[in-house]
Every structure is written in structure tokens, then in C-alpha cells.
Automatic annotation (TrEMBL):
UniProt cross-references to Pfam families, sorted A to Z: ABC_tran (PF00005)
Protein name: Phosphonate-transporting ATPase
Known EC number: 3.6.3.28
Keyword vocabulary terms for this entry: ATP-binding, Hydrolase, Nucleotide-binding, Transport
Ranges of residues in domain ABC transporter: 2-233
EC class name: hydrolase
Family to which this protein belongs: Belongs to the ABC transporter superfamily.
Gene3D superfamilies the record matches: P-loop containing nucleotide triphosphate hydrolases
One Gene Ontology term of the molecular function aspect: ATP hydrolysis activity
Amino acid sequence: MLEVQNLAVNYRGVSALQGVSFSIAPGQLVGLIGPNGAGKSTLVKAMLGLIPTVSGFVRFNQRPLKQQRQQVAYIPQRSQIDWDYPVTVWNVVLMGRTFDRGLFSRISRQSQQLAENALQRVGMWELRHRQIGELSGGQQQRVFIARAIAQQAEIFLFDEPLIGIDKKTEALIFEVFSDLKAERKTLLVSSHQWGQDLAKYDSLLLLNQQLVAVGLPQEVMTIENIQRAYGQGISNPVKQSLETLYFC
Ligand SMILES: Nc1ncnc2c1ncn2[C@@H]1O[C@H](COP(=O)(O)OP(=O)(O)OP(=O)(O)O)[C@@H](O)[C@H]1O
């Protein structure tokens, strides 16, 4: 069980997150949604211990998550990655196995096999010798998902994985989510994507500095909750996705 209790973050004295508490059971796919600047990335980074927190704790199976970083696969937003960095697809995926280096920093045969399987899973094996900067947005996302799969983590934190990708990659990502759920992994996916996709999550966390609502997608995505999180004006895409959720 992944537990977040009373998490708060300030940036230079200004509050970005307050009193965030939730838990996720193994095998659950949880969506983290909220407007731009709501603190979605901040929450994911705070959970990983990448930024300082003012209060709160994050535990996995009753132990601090910070002490079990190897159990967490983090798939950052594509915009946070330097795509000009000269590294091949194969080496990015092997980075998921860096904890498994033996004498003279050699990567074990088992790790190489896991990296190969992960690249096959996301349909990127043929492009393994490519530089990452030479890939499309969807292909880049597949490579980082392969790295996460190769890591064999228990918890997967995806930061906006659906931004700027093609429909085929989006379908593949949801297939990978299903596989990981079947393996009883814990999945938290931040997204500001609206539409039918929201109904695919087991539950949603609606965030705007604090948690506005938590629960089943149709319980969370009420007009009242959306207004509390997004302010008074609800745009057409938001209305459409509410209708999609109610009529699916
Ligand atoms: N390093 C930082 N220093 C100061 N303020 C920051 C920093 N990072 C984020 N913020 C601020 O904290 C708030 C939350 O930002 P965050 O990136 O977590 O939101 P988000 O929900 O992920 O947004 P988006 O959907 O646009 O990616 C914003 O007001 C942002 O400007």
C-alpha cells in the first residue's frame, strides 16, 4: 500500500501543496488531475523526495518511500528531458537497471534481457540504436516507459504521459497500464487530458493545491467539484468529458 499523509510543499515561502493525503492499493490505476499550476508535478516530485516538504510523509508497505527509491519508476514530463543529450534508446532503457551493475560497471545479462523485453513490449526494439533526439514524441514516450518496465519497480509515477503523443502510442500506454495492474503494481498518472480516458482509471485525485475530491471517476467529476478545482468557468471540453463520463 502506498500512503501519502498530510503532504505540504512551499516554494520560497509560497504554498504549492497543502495537507494532501491519500492511499493507493496494489493493482490500482489512479489518475491525478487538476488545472495548470495545481501542483501535480510538485506532488509527484515531493513523493519521490526530489524537493523538500514542509510536512507529511510518504510510505510504501509501511516504510518511508525515500528509503525504497529503487521500487519507484518515475516517468517525467517529456518537456523536462534534454532531448539533445547524446544517448541511444538502448542506453536510456539500460538506465532503468543502473542499480544492477557488477564488477567494472558491467550490466548483467539478466538486465540486458529485461531491457530487450521492455523495448519489444513497447515496439521500439528495432530503433534501439537511434539517438533519442531523433525520435517522434510518441516514440520518446515509449522509450521512457520501456525504461520504467525494465526497472521492475513496484510503483510507477507517470507525469503527463499522454501529452503530445499519437493515438497508437496512447492505446499502447493504456495496454501497458493494464499489464502493470495485472502484476499488482501501483500506478499514479498525472494528466490534464479530458475525455473518455478518465473513465479508464480506478479512481481519481482532483487537485488544486489541496485535494478537492478523491474517488471513482464519476464521483469526482461532478460539476460542483470541477468548479471548486477549476473556478467558475467550465469550458466546453470539460463539459463534454463530464457528459462522456456520465453516459459511458
Ligand atoms: N521550482 C519552482 N520554484 C517556484 N515555484 C514553482 C516551482 N515549480 C513549480 N512552481 C509553482 O508551483 C505551482 C505548482 O506547479 P506544478 O508544476 O507542480 O503544477 P502542475 O499541476 O504540474 O502544472 P502543469 O499542469 O502546468 O504541469 C505553480 O504555481 C508553479 O508556478
